[in-house]
Design a protein that fits this description.
The chain has 328 residues and is of the alpha/beta class. It contains 14 helices and ten strands.
Length: 328
């Protein structure tokens, strides 16, 4: 599959853009495990043109993580165009427009998935950004605002006509947020539409290698994107890629190996931020990791792990987990 002149190979698997998750350290880790393309955390166009330091830091990308996309969001054309030009100077491979974030502080103000209630403005922003930059522009959005307004099939054509190079569709409406099951049938309809000629990337509930292959085969998408299933499990890309290439499951990864990866996540996060913030940042990964699912009498240990404030404290808990549950 190609996005403009960027060749991502056959059946590529991408790391979704996620706020407070896809920082440089995590992107590189997922890349090492086989992610074919990675996305930054989403960047506020408004904060970017005001030169907010924390926002500008999100533009930091490295050659090691290429191909990499920077994603921006906003609610008016002039701001998005100006932000797009700033992003272009950071030299990402792709500029992605976020028309899918459902959280209230974004969508409630008309940005992200809020744009699904103002399609003319969404199209105006898209067209203007495409015209303003030389790098490929892509869009990520949802099926529609709610169950009564699933407009993605017609919207996809309109976005394509604005000149975008690829479209990512999350199989939920804004009203669903992240609840219920992702509906891939409409993603498949977009892909089957004979008018569509840009790559279609499917997103939502890809949590196993088997489901990844199913999405390619049943819905015909050009690529899939993995988001929340990577929390505490960046090796999911290794598992998915192996299954897609061989049709067989990767031999079981040992808990000890997985815990070494989590330990590296902690180290990377602390090195990127500082000890306190790095540990706070990585907690969601520890909380979600399948390594600890189903361990007997784990509640107190889990609490200790998620309350640790220093590396020493956290690693003592890790060592306790190894000795009690994964000896050898």
């Amino acid at each position: 599959m190609k996005i403009a002149n960027i060749d991502l190979g056959e059946r590529p698997v991408l790391l979704a853009p996620m706020e407070d998750v896809t920082d440089p350290a995590f992107r590189l880790m997922c890349k090492r495990f086989g992610a074919d393309m990675v996305y930054t955390e989403f960047v506020s166009a408004d904060a970017l043109i005001r030169s907010v330091s924390k926002t500008e830091q999100k533009l930091n990308i490295s050659d090691e993580e290429r191909p990499v996309a920077i994603q921006i969001y906003g609610r008016d054309t002039a701001t998005m165009v100006e932000a797009a030009k700033i992003v272009e100077q950071a030299r990402p491979d792709i500029l992605d427009l976020n028309f899918g974030c459902p959280v209230k502080r974004v969508a409630g103000k008309g940005a992200g998935a809020g744009m699904l209630q103002n399609i003319p403005l969404m199209l105006e922003i898209t067209r203007s950004v495409v015209d303003a930059v030389k790098i490929p522009v892509t869009v990520k959005t949802r099926l529609g605002w709610d169950a009564d307004h699933k407009i993605i099939v017609s919207l996809a054509e309109q976005l394509q006509d604005c000149g975008i190079s690829a479209l990512t569709i999350h199989g939920r409406t804004r009203a669903q947020m992240y609840t219920g099951e992702a509906d891939w049938t409409l993603i498949g309809e977009v892909k089957k539409n004979p008018r569509m000629h840009i790559p279609i990337i499917g997103n939502g509930d890809v949590t196993t290698p088997q489901r990844a292959r199913e999405c390619f085969e049943q819905y015909g998408v050009d690529a899939i994107m993995i988001g929340r299933a990577s929390f505490g499990r960046p090796w999911i890309f290794k598992e998915v890629k192996h299954y897609l290439e061989t049709g067989e499951e990767l031999p079981a990864l040992t808990p000890q190996w997985c815990m070494d990866v989590l330990r590296q996540e902690v180290e990377d996060s602390v090195n990127l931020l500082d000890e306190r913030r790095g540990i706070l940042h990585v907690r969601r990964h520890l909380a979600a990791s399948p390594v600890f699912k189903g361990l007997p009498n784990f509640r107190d240990t889990r609490i200790a792990m998620l309350r640790a404030e220093t590396k020493d404290e956290l690693y003592r808990t890790f060592n306790d987990i190894r000795q009690r549950f994964f000896p050898g």
